[in-house]
Amino acid sequence: MKTDHHVILRVVAKPLIPIISLFALYVHFHGDYSPGGGFQAGVIIAVAVILYSLIFGITPAMKAVPPWFARSLSALGFIIFGAVGVWALMMGGNYLDYDALFNEEPGGHYGQHYGILFVELGVLFAVAGSMLSIFYAFAGRVTEIKDEDW
Amino acid sequence: MTGYEGADLAIALINVVLLGLLFVIGVAIARMRSLFAIVMLSGVYSLISATWFVALDAVDVAFTEAAVGAGISTALLLGAMLLTSRTAKPEPRAMRIVPLFAVIAVGCMLVYATIDLPAFGDPDSPANTYVGTAYLERTPEDIGVPNIVTAVLASYRGFDTLGETGVVFAAALSVILLLGFGERSLSASLRKKTDKKG
């Protein structure tokens, strides 16, 4: 019979992981009103996946969130950030000038709101992907973490 | 500072307790040899400094410190620790004098430097007069976002944040290039396995 010493750990961690991810989204979309933003949200999402891989093993985590996905996510985030700047350029403004995004009247704040949201989304993707890639690069060198290793 | 009598004393007490805890943990980390305990204690160190940042009203910094310092760095250091031995090499007693002197000298310099700093929360300090007040005054009409930290980070200083995102991306890229893609990495062997099956 296979003995599993970590039943309690697994049972406790399983419901926590979706809540952690949900909290990351809250931190991102509520960043305009409360402390937080894309960077913190990205780190929290990465932590949720890392917690999963620490408890259930690195191989299932790599199946759930493949390393190529983490790498692409990181690049995609950086591209989104740059693209918002190019969008502002196309609309006739300066690079990263969110007021120009929707060509609105002076005093309107839609451009600023959505500009900040998109840019922070880019930061979220870049940070989450980067942190996860770095963790995979370190943890992927050992095939399995045994109990005696701690 | 505020409200009722003894508030100043309470805040001072909290500061002393938190900083005292940080000092104890710092000494413990310096004296320890087990890498696992050191990684865990540095996570605790980050968490306590995050608490202290909350006491200083720097909520955004505290949040980042808790997420990055206590969360991701601890996990990354654990991952790195698995690749090496579990205990640090003991150093000869005579060699320990040099770092001690270095720490004391740097500490003296820092204490000397703090004498010139403006008092905490001083409205006339340089940080609270020039550009800081301008941001506070102009954010509601310029950006329309209640959290001024977000407004400064993402809008006023958008180029800075773009550069920071680039730095994070470059750091991940270099780690991947140094460690990740090779034959020995787990992701490569996983990919091979699925290729054989499919």
Describe the model.
The complex is a heterodimer of chains A (150) and B (198). Chain A is mainly alpha-helical. Chain A has 5 helices and no strands. Chain A has helices at 7-29, 38-56, 58-64, 67-90, 110-139. The model of chain A has no long low-confidence stretch (mean pLDDT 85). By secondary structure, chain B is mainly α. Chain B has a domain at 1-94. Chain B contains 9 helices and no strands. In chain B, helix 7 (148-156) crosses helix 8. The model of chain B has no long low-confidence stretch (mean pLDDT 84). Classes of the chains: A mainly alpha (150), B mainly alpha (198). The interface between A and B is large, with 64 and 53 residues.
Distance between the termini of chain B: 69 Å
Total number of distinct structural domains of chain A: 1
Question: Rough shape of chain B?
Answer: extended
Estimate the strand proportion of chain A.
Answer: under 5%
Question: Care to count the β-strands of chain B?
Answer: 0
Helicity of chain A, as a percent range: 55-70%
How many strand elements of chain A?
0
Biggest interface, and residues per chain? A-B, 64 and 53 residues
Radius of gyration of chain A: 19 Å
Q: Helicity level of chain B, as a percent range?
A: over 70%
Assembly form of the protein = heterodimer
Low-confidence stretches of chain A are none
C-alpha-based Rg of chain B, rounded: 23 Å
Cα separation of the termini of chain A: 23 Å
**What is the element string of chain A, with H for helices and E for strands?**
HHHHH
Could you say which overall geometry of chain A the principal axes of the C-alpha atoms support?
Answer: elongated
Structural category of chain B? mainly alpha
Quick rundown:
The complex is a heterodimer of chains A (150) and B (198). Chain A contains five helices and no strands.
